[in-house]
Design brief:
The chain is an alpha+beta fold and 371 residues long. It has 2 domains: 246 residues, Alpha-Beta Barrel (TIM Barrel); 94 residues, Immunoglobulin-like (Sandwich), CATH 2.60.40. It is 26% helix and 29% strand. The strands form 2 sheets. The chain has a 15-stranded mixed β-sheet that branches. α2 packs parallel to α3. The longest helix has 20 residues. It is elongated, with a radius of gyration of 24 Å. The protein binds zinc ion. The site of zinc ion (ZN) has 6 residues, from loops.
Amino acid sequence: MHFRKTLFLISILFVVELAAGQSRKIINVPDILGYQTLKCDFHMHTVFSDGTVWPTIRVEEAWREGLDAISITDHIEYRPHSKDIISGHNRSFEIAEPKAENLNVLLIQAAEITRGMPPGHLNALFIRNANLLDREDVNDALKEAREQGAFILWNHPGWKSQQPDTTLWWEEHSELLKNDLLHGIEVFNSRSYYPEALDWANEKKLTMFCNTDVHGPIGMSFELENSHRPMTLVFAKSRTLGGIKEALFNRRTAVYFDNTLMGEPDFLEPLFFASLEYGDSPLRLKNEETKYVQIKNNSDIDYELEMVQPGIGFDCQESVLLKAHHITTIELNGNSDEVIGMKELNVYYRVKNMFVSSEENLVVTFSFRNY
Ligand code: ZN
């Protein structure tokens, strides 16, 4: 009896110690417009296709890195470990699900439909039975996914193995789009950025994605100590599977890799300003005077600003770096008497690490109260 009690205590301590030894990073990217900004990765593999890790590890990696949601997207058609791993296509999800539940990581059931170009590789998210996607004709597989309620995205559209010279949009993709079988596109995959995809997302009203497509342990593929894995930011009404699905179908996402963000100005601009804090008391700037505005950046993103056009009656720095988790001063110098008449001092900056298309940066306007 005593022995059993001791054994019980030891096992409890062991469990507590394991849980206490884990820590989760916090990714500081603000919520905007009443939505929660969820940090997500919708493309990764396990031993159940051509990856080298067990499904529960994908969940633990995501938890440690501070992600809200992931989907495991094992290939339907490509399973190089199938001599050793003999199972149906739902197995990686089933194994990962209890761990995800336990750690409160949202796990979306998914699969990668893996074909030559066109149409290439497509992820079907929010499916219910991956076995039914194992079809000869790619259109049958996609239709089946859609009947299950899937959101479908085109992966790595400019992947060199499939599109070696130019990244082309094929007639087949127009057909898919027309038939409600294509809803999103990877603008960024692993370490590759596809500028064409960013412009197509804007033109053709596709949802933008940024995913890892990780195959090995995450720490062997990405620098996690001082940076983060590439991720899709999802602006969701709630931190639920339904919340994510609604946001994806309504194109509320942004791309986030290294120190770069890409997306629609409607999301990037509020994200930029929600990252910052600065006072609102009038500056009362006069000619030949200098005033400072202290701007606190609460986010993980270093914002690199470059002036677009000077203000009226004053000038300020040509370039400013709003360093993450730091306070930076913007210096305003009155250069004519005109400045006294200005109610607000407007400063126009281009954010060099925020892109709204392949060729345009986000432009922001600071309006500092003057009188
Ligand atoms: Zn993949």
